[in-house]
Amino acid sequence: MKPSHHIKSTPRFLILGAMDEEIQELIALLQLEKQEQWCGFTLYWGTLDSVEVIVCKSGIGKVFASLITQHMIDCCELRGVLFTGVAGAVAPDLKPGDIVVGTRIIHHDFDVAGLGFEPGHIPFTDYRYFESDPGLVEAALNAKAGLALVRAGCVGTGDQFVTDKSILPDLGLDCVDMEGAAVAQVCTVNRIPFLIIRIISDSADGSANVDFSTNLPKYAHRSVGILQSTVQHTKL
Ligand code: ADE
């Protein structure tokens, strides 16, 4: 039997994060309507300051992120998709706790150089850098963020936890994650507005594993206020 979320409902925002620490505070703030399971994913339906949303943990990596994004696009009427979570800093000005509102997102590990394609270019398509929805970016940048530094930036995605920045191609990256470009690509193909928002946990260097473990519980929820304000104030 198909789950009830197969019935198209009123438009909502889908808010995703890869790990429990990245979504648990949002779930706690939800006025919960219902909770459903699909293929091991838990879908939390509810309202966030009276805005209708679905919150879900995608799990780590591009395949899980693509899978749940496409499924929810197919099953629900979505106003947009927001992905939140931690990232490794590439730009030298970014420190743990800072927030990057991803304006451009690219697969840093997509490499078809052997056929003459630029890094990140998906062959035989126009897809390379994916653009977050400008209205969502504006709403996120206008949100009050307390003490955190918040700035626009370029997010690079790969199915790897980066512990040495020198392996990254020269793409103008500000930070690296493991899901952003997958969500961006799925949303772009489906013409669904999206936003990738990342909190810096480490510097994608030799200390990244220790910094990640220390800073994930400390900072993973830092984007909650921005997400609340973004869904509240966007014109979508
Ligand atoms: N997420 C948080 N830190 C990361 C890193 N160093 N590489 C990839 N994804 C990350």
Question: Would you kindly provide a brief summary of this structure?
Answer:
With 236 residues, the chain is an alpha/beta fold.
Order of helices and strands: EHEEEHEEEHEEHEHH
Shape assignment: globular
- Give the helix/strand class: alpha/beta
Low-confidence stretches: none
How many helices?
6
What compounds are bound to the protein?
adenine
Range of helix content: 25-40%
Q: Strand order across the biggest sheet?
A: 5-9-8-6-10
Provide the β-strand percentage band: 25-35%
Counted beta strands: 10
Radius of gyration over C-alpha positions, nearest whole angstrom: 17 Å
For the report, how would you describe the main beta sheet? 5 strands, mixed, barrel
pLDDT averaged residue by residue: 95
CA distance, first residue to last residue? 33 Å
What does the model show?
The protein has a 5-stranded mixed beta barrel, surrounded by 5 helices. 45% of the residues are buried. Helices cover 28% and strands 31% of the residues. It has helices at residues 20-29, 62-75, 134-142, 180-190, 208-219, 224-233; strands spanning 12-17, 31-38, 41-48, 51-57, 78-89, 99-107, 130-131, 150-157, 175-177, 194-202. The protein has 236 residues and is an alpha/beta fold. The structure holds adenine. Adenine binds next to strand 5, strand 9, strand 10 and helix 5.
